[in-house]
Every structure is written in structure tokens, then in C-alpha cells.
Design brief:
With about 210 residues, this protein is α+β, with helices and mostly antiparallel strands. Helix content is about 25%, strand content about 30%. The chain is built from six helices and eight strands. Strands 1-2-3-4-5-6-8-7 form an eight-stranded mixed β-sheet, sandwiched between helices. Helix 4 links the parallel strand 5 and strand 6. Helix 1 packs across helix 3. The longest helix has 15 residues. The radius of gyration is 16 Å and the shape is globular.
Length: about 210
């Protein structure tokens, strides 16, 4: 996979991802944790129906575990993490990628919580902790994509301070055409024009994949 030039050596030997809220802890999931994540996915199929147009496949968690950014995009470190409650039960998952697709831009590839945590404030607290972790790691922008028409997610990310910059045509896992809204958030007061200069592929008129 392509990587960002001149990154600090520690980004080539990833440190474990770990941060906490009052009720939840985020830490890396290794291969042995994938079956527990698969069980969580299967217990919460609505997310996958909304995003992928179908319930989770029997190997959904394994494919998420093995999927890395596409070769044409530079990146620093990819973390595959679980969200655990204070009793140690797996309640969600995060995939976070630093310096994708440009230095200082951290991309959230997955932000998943069990259904019973939605609407409780847990997601907002988790995002605030993620944002603090990204700032600490040198991020200047946070970036993600949300399926257009997923109103709950669009409202949540807007409430967190994200702005839409581009809509991309994609094909979901069920083979249906969809639109993905790319959204970004400045962490140090940056202007949107500055971001688009840094990441031209996210310009509204861009045709880059």
C-alpha cells in the first residue's frame, strides 16, 4: 500500500490505539477477536442494511479486518479497534486511518456501535475522545464518508461539526448504485479552502476515485 512520505518512524511500527470515555474503552482488536466482532455485527444488522444494502455476510468482520486503504491512496497507520464497556464486553468497532489521503488528515473508515447504545450519548462521547486522540497524534482534519439518505448519520456528523465537501458515486456491497457524502472537520480552525487545496480529490468537482 502507498504510504505518506517522511512520516515519523513510529507510524511504520504502529502503536496500539487506546482511548476512553466515562463508560467505554477503545483498544485494538487482533485476529483472535474477529469472531466476537462478527457476532456483534450479526446482532446489529440494521447498520449493514442501511450502509451496504444487505445484512452482514458470514465473513463480514474478517473482511473488515483484512481490508486496507486502496493502493492509490497514501496513508500512515491503520488501526482496527473494538469499543468495550467497563465489563469488557464488545459493544462496537472503529477503523481509523492516519494521514489518509494526505498528511494531517485522519479518516474514520468505520464508526459502529451496538443498537442499544445509540441515542444514549455514547456515540458523541466516543467521537469527542477520538477527536482528542487525533489531535494528540497530529491530525489537523477529520474525514469520513456517510451514505446519502442515511439521515440519522448525516445529522449526527453535522452535529459533531463536520461539513460536506463532495458526493461520490459508489456501488454498495449488494451491487446497487449509491452516493457517499464525504464530510470533514477542522481540528485547528482550518478553512475549507485550505483542506481542498491539501486534498484536491475531495473538491466538489473532482472525478478522482
Amino acid at each position: 500500500m502507498a504510504r505518506v512520505d517522511n512520516l515519523a518512524p513510529t507510524l511504520h511500527r504502529p502503536m496500539p490505539l487506546h482511548f476512553e470515555t466515562a463508560d467505554l474503552a477503545v483498544r485494538d482488536i487482533q485476529a483472535e477477536g474477529v469472531p466476537a466482532l462478527q457476532a456483534l455485527f450479526e446482532a446489529n444488522p440494521d447498520y449493514f442494511v442501511t450502509v451496504n444494502g444487505r445484512p452482514p455476510e458470514p465473513d463480514e468482520a474478517q473482511r473488515e479486518f483484512e481490508e486496507f486503504p486502496p493502493a492509490h491512496l497514501p496513508y500512515g497507520t491503520r488501526w482496527f479497534a473494538g469499543v468495550f464497556d467497563r465489563a469488557g464486553a464488545l459493544r462496537g468497532s472503529l477503523i481509523l486511518v492516519s494521514d489518509l489521503p494526505a498528511r494531517g488528515v485522519w479518516h474514520t473508515a468505520l464508526f459502529f456501535l451496538a443498537q442499544e447504545l445509540r441515542g444514549t450519548g455514547a456515540a458523541l462521547a466516543l467521537h469527542q475522545a477520538l477527536e482528542a486522540k487525533a489531535r494528540e497524534g497530529g491530525a489537523h482534519w477529520l474525514r469520513l464518508a456517510v451514505i446519502e439518505g442515511n439521515g440519522r448519520a448525516e445529522r449526527f456528523w453535522a452535529r459533531c461539526g463536520y461539513q460536506a465537501v463532495r458526493v461520490r458515486d459508489i456501488v454498495d456491497a449488494s451491487g446497487q448504485p449509491r452516493k457517499a457524502r464525504v464530510m470533514v472537520k477542522p481540528l485547528h480552525g482550518g478553512l475549507l479552502a485550505d483542506y481542498l487545496q491539501r486534498v484536491p480529490r475531495d473538491h466538489p468537482d473532482s472525478s478522482l476515485p
